[in-house]
Amino acid sequence: MPLAFISIIIVLCALYAILQVVTSAETTVNKTVWTLLIIVLPVIGFIIWVVAGPRTQKAA
Hints:
Layout: H1 2-22, H2 28-40, H3 42-52
Helix pairs in contact: 1-2, 1-3, 2-3
């Protein structure tokens, strides 16, 4: 049971990251690279995305 819960959390985090990447203002190439990284390596890809991923622009 705990393994199933952890798996669901991982999938939800990956889906959230992919949604954020796809709706970002990044180029298509950057979106593709980030999405593939998150799909191929869900846990590591999500962690890398949180640390170095696309950032939203703050209003001036």
